[in-house]
Amino acid sequence: MPEIQALNSRSSIEALLSIEFLEEKEIPIVSVREDSRFYPREEYDESAVNRYRLDLDSLPPIMIAEDGTLLDGKHRLIAHRIEQRQTIKARVYRVPEKYYRAYAAYLNARHGLQLSMKEKRMEAERLLRECHFSDEVIGQILGVSRRTVTGWLSGVKQELDHAAKEKALELWLRCFTQEQITDELARLGYGEFGRSTITTWLDKNVKNGNLAEIDTPQELKLYSIWNFPKLSEDQLRYPGQLPEALIENVLYYWTEPFQVVWDPFAGSGVTGRVARRMMRRYQLSDLAPIDDSIRQHDLLNGLPDWLVKPDLIFLDPPYWKQKTEQYVDHPSNLAAMDLDQFYRAIRRIFESFCKLKGTKVAIIVQDTQWRNDRQTEPHAFRIWQIADSLGWRFIERVICPYSNVQYTPQMQEAAKEARIPLVTHRDLIVFEVV
Predict the structure, then answer these.
(1) In terms of domains, do 177 and 247 share one?
(2) Are residues 192 and 319 both part of a single domain?
(3) Contacts for 282-291: CB closer than 8 Å, 24+ residues apart
């Protein structure tokens, strides 16, 4: 956790929290906002309220933020309400909202009716989690010693430190730079950490991980026909969704731990989930992202400017003339193009990859059947020809049968009459850009 220089006076604490006194004035009681998120005391002391009711006019002002949020003086406010007063004296402060509760706790520790030690311990944890203050500053805010705060927070610090390290590793696997990791941790409320700290964390994670256990798929395929059961009930349904086990095998055979994978047809993001589990760094993009972990990018516009050079590009493009209506309505939707446009688009995509020498490209496709002339369109063969014409090196071809029948009884009868065997598999072809 970042340490903040010791602050020994009221003015120093108020400077730390960016507090500015504005004015003291009589305000309507109805304008006071009570918000439990920002006020450390939930219960009130009935005897204190009764004492205050005896002499309201001699009570010090309550403390409020500029928007009327109560920071200190709950007992005084209740006493005024019971006595049916319409106004109350208030000191008004300009306070950043993120420090409302911290300043309220500070004010509470400066008068007689303070929080209990149990309540102060809870506030100490909140100040650490939400504001990442040092033990010394938390002690000064709550009116307790630094040693007391350290004893309260040792376990919480370990928990937060572990969470920050896990988040840093996750961001690194998503190809964030170390500077971006530092900024994102701060934005998400984990605290402020230097680049050297992030480097140390990542080195330990990379070196200490059990890579053999992480790297090997549970359903490792040893042959060139990959049969997988249908999607699990828990896996998100998405057009053209692949089994996670298939992607695990792709990453196992054609990447190493901590290498970079790019999936530009990311869909539901399954490649990212598998890559994270197998300790591969990954980048996800799609024409129509479903969440902010996937960047918006049209692959027909070339390589994105944010791309970290990948070791593997995994392509699971929309299949030609299949499930067209389930994909986004866009000129770059491969599924909706005519056949010549489809192949020109594939070539254009492959040509943009030619800048990435040494990168492997794995593409999974299914041949199309039942065109008007009832012939099979050999997409895998045509795409192979495109890659070969660009001088790419062929690495492997794998057959991926479907786990269930893809054809209706009527289509099966028509295939018998036409004497055409039905395609029940996809081709996975792997090349290297040279």
Answers:
(1) no
(2) no
(3) 282/173, 282/174, 282/175, 283/174, 283/175, 283/307, 283/308, 283/310, 287/328, 287/330, 287/332, 287/333, 288/327, 288/328, 288/330
